[in-house]
Fold:
Amino acid sequence: MPPLISLLRGINVSGHNMIKMAELKALYESLGFKNVTTYIQSGNVVFETDQDRPDKLEASIERAIEKKYGFPVTVIVREPAELRRIISGNPFLASKNVDEIRLYVTFLRSKPPAALLKSIQTVAAKSPDEYAINGREIYLHCPNGYGKTMLSNTFFEKQLKIVATTRNWKTVNTLYAIAVPEKTM
Structure:
């Protein structure tokens, strides 16, 4: 069973949609997942399963969370190879002026339609922040911090009409290291 990484959107933020990580781990185990590991309180779970359809896994986990907690949570599942590609492909790492603490990745449920990508450019042109879209991920460099960016998770969801969740660069790298410890970059 190869490991998978699931990213939950919008839990444990400002006292809303609270889920304890020990409970989340138990929920995943109740779904038959093995070697379940959570990472920090924002809903990152590495697990193993025989199921090979990320879209079905996402739906199954979402249903289980809503049934147990009574609120909907978006779940996005990625394979370690996808995280490795994301890590090695970050276009902002080439710049010596980029502080990795100011790097983020927005994970999209699906690839955005090309017609909607232009709507982002107008807003982004007014921002000190930079972004690069590659498939189902958006790389972000926010020199003033993510809390001050106009290019937030909500912004991308509204503009692209796709559910998404954002993680800082350290979390992306740590999740890959948990999923594939002997192959960390």
